[in-house]
Amino acid sequence: MTAQNSPQDNAEAQTNAQSDLPAKGVEVIRHALRTMPFAPGVYRMLGSKGEVLYVGKALSLKKRVTSYTQVGRLPERLRRMVSETASMEIVTTHTEAEALLLEANYIKRMKPRFNILLRDDKSYPWLMLTDGQAFPQIAKHRGKAVKGASLWGPFASAWAVNQTLNLIQRVFLLRSCADSVFNSRSRPCLLFQIKRCSAPCVERIDQQAYGQLVEQARDFLSGKDTALRETLGADMNRAAEEMDFERAAVLRDRIRALAQMQESSVINPASLQDADVFGLWQEAGQTCIQVFFVRGGRNNGSRSFFPAHAQDEAPADILSAFIVQFYDDKPCPAQILVNHALAESPLMAEALALRRGKKVEILNPQRGEKKQVVDHAVTNARDALNRRLAETAGQAKLLQGVADVFALDAPPERIEVYDNSHIQGAHAYGVMIVGGPEGFNRKAYRKFRIKGPITPGDDFAMMREVLERRFGRALREAEEGDTSNWPDVLLIDGGAGQYSAVRAVLDELGVTGVKLVGIAKGPDRDAGREWFYTDHTEPFQLPLRDPVLYYLQRLRDEAHRFAITTHRSGRSKALVTSELDDIPGIGPARKKMLLNTFGSARAVKQAGLEALEAAPGVSRELARVVYGHFHPGWSPD
Questions:
Q1: Cys bridge to 325: 118, 476, 532, 603, which one at CB 3.0-4.6 A?
Q2: Confidence band for 595, pLDDT divided at 50, 70 and 90
Q3: Whole-number Å distance between alpha carbons of 216 and 65
């Protein structure tokens, strides 16, 4: 690809927005067209603050972008986008397929609000089998590929990969323990007793026999299981004929586990080897896409997605945009099955083949087993969307209840809840969680490391710092016209004292239009007996079985959970750091060497210059740097 303009990708850019460019709209696009090439590439439309409004790809950039100047032919969504466009940027590519891949990458990274967006912020689990070891390990894995290991997947969930891992252990008896555990065993563990490991750690199986199990597991995970069933059956019959009934029983159990694995999938089509199945269903203006992962002829589970899109988007367009973004950060299988014919199917197949390095087929089956599999995915998508709509309706009812209880003009769109966590003032953190029409908005959660200076244990001062930092930024954004993150309700865990303190902070900051509510347990600390504090009313309680009470308790408890986990994470990080980390030139290796030599960071700090220079691996210059760090007044001269 040849980058014409991409400041965010550190490429040489050609920006069509000039100082004399009109403020917004069609004239901006016409100005950009003056220097726009006919080459394939990706264009970005930017708002007045530099935010990306829309990302698109084209075989001919000039021809495609020209269509935006014909405003009367555009749908309402695109007319609004054009009216907000303040500048444009382009990146040229060699082919349209490359442009499609780059477009998907930009959309997933920049999240422009006028594009169809894939909401997928979770990693996928894999099965990992280590290579190059005398007794390889089978385990689940998340994240990037590990050098010296083979991966199979992805699996839709941790449950799916755990189920497969358990069954593979029963069939192939491979170890799942870490190398440190494996090397320190002196007798078999419980997995050997329950016939899920062959105990290579204590030589209950030799390397050659274990290697055969590993190769059988590789063949099975690659879809070559027919020969495996025949081999195990023949071995079992031979063991029975030789009166080796104990071995025959072990082989029988392995065959049963293998059969269970093959029958455990909801779908297990013989005609599919490596494929992903996409089923789209729309209802009430929302879309659900159900994805089934089929690898080695087996179903690795499914996952539901709810992409964000405009109301007028066609199902095929939503599915096309979703699929290209979906494979931006994960490998693509040989076949992709969909329930809608995609207009750019050949182009998408070409783009995905570029990324995969092999041919990719995108199929819209109309009959047979593959059609049944796609229909099954659509049925699951429909059920998942119906559940989501029911939950959304229930959530809307709860928010209306909150509005009624606290006399709000309308159901709140954003409820912010705050909490603190510390141990006698140490490792203090404040947190904010957010709830709204779609439940907990975890992307909006925030952590605040308390900077102080604050008296240890002063919760009021900690809350003041958190609110000043949170609303200081919110007020600056509001001055610029951005009130998208402004809360309707602010819920704090505390009674009259906490309520008064927070009210004073908000008044000092000039925060208005936010309903402040305090929630406090009664004298007996009983859940369900909470008192609520708010303005212009006396403290009150809600009926024990009131759904609104349960909802507010959930918000309070979620904030408490997030505060505790944040504090524990910060405390754990602090335990593995030391004063040595702040010294220039001290990396993990030298830090470890100094700690091994002197025993602790405190001993390093107290060591003399001669002792530091005598430490193995420490040069004279580095010893002086370390000594000077702990003795600021010392000079090498």
A1: 118
A2: confident
A3: 55
Q: Is 404 exposed, middle or buried (0-12, 13-18, 19+ CB in 10 A)?
A: exposed
Among residues 332, 382, 371, the alpha carbon closest in space to that of 352 is found at 332
Alpha-carbon span 239 to 246, nearest angstrom: 8
Reduced to 3 states, what is the DSSP secondary structure of residue 223? coil
In sign, the C-alpha dihedral spanning 364, 365, 371, 373 is negative
Alpha carbons within 13 A on the beta-carbon side of 428: 20
Q: How is residue 171 written in tokens?
A: 């069939």
521 contact partners, CB below 8 Å, separation of at least 6: 527, 529, 530, 531
Q: Is the pLDDT of residue 236 over 90?
A: no
The three state secondary structure string of 183-212 is HHCCCCCHHHHCCCCCCHHHCCCCHHHHHH
Amino acid residing at 88: M
**Mean of the per-residue pLDDT values of the chain:** 84
Show the tokens assigned to 9.
């990708």
- DSSP structure string for 482-529: --TT--SEEEEE--HHHHHHHHHHHHHHT--S-EEEEEE--TT--TT-
- Residue carrying the six token digits 């105990």: 199
Strands (E) in 522-583, as ranges, are: 531-533
Sequence-distant contacts of 230-233: CB under 8 A, at least 24 apart: 232/258
Alpha helices in 357-458 (DSSP H): 368-405
Residue 169 CA to residue 173 CA, distance in Å, equals 5
Using a cut of 0.90, tell me whether the model's pTM lies above it. Answer: no
> How many whole angstroms separate alpha carbon 424 and alpha carbon 447?
19
- Whether the CB-CB separation of 119 and 306 falls below 8 Å is answered with yes
Total residues belonging to the chain: 637
- Terminus-to-terminus CA distance in the chain, angstroms? 56
Sheet holding 286-295, edge to edge: 298-305, 286-295, 275-283, 335-338, 361-363
> Token digits for 358?
């092999």
Q: Which residues of 566-597 are buried (b: 16+ CB within 10 A; e: fewer)?
A: bbeebeeeeeeebebeebeebeeebbeebeeb
pLDDT of residue 153: 82
Q: What is the rounded CA–CA span in Å between residue 586 and residue 425?
A: 30
Could you tell me whether strands 335-338 and 298-305 are parallel, antiparallel, or unpaired per DSSP bridges? unpaired
Q: Which of 431, 554, 413, 424 is nearest to 488 (CA)?
A: 413
Main-chain dihedrals φ then ψ at residue 113, nearest 5 degrees: -75, -10
Name the maximum alpha-carbon separation found in the chain.
93
Helix (H, G, I), strand (E, B) or coil at 471: helix
Who's near 189: CB < 8 A, 6+ residues apart? 177, 197, 199, 201
Strand partners, 289: 280, 305
Q: In the structure, what pLDDT confidence band is assigned to residue 593 with cuts at 50, 70 and 90?
A: confident
User: Is 533 strand, coil or helix?
Assistant: strand
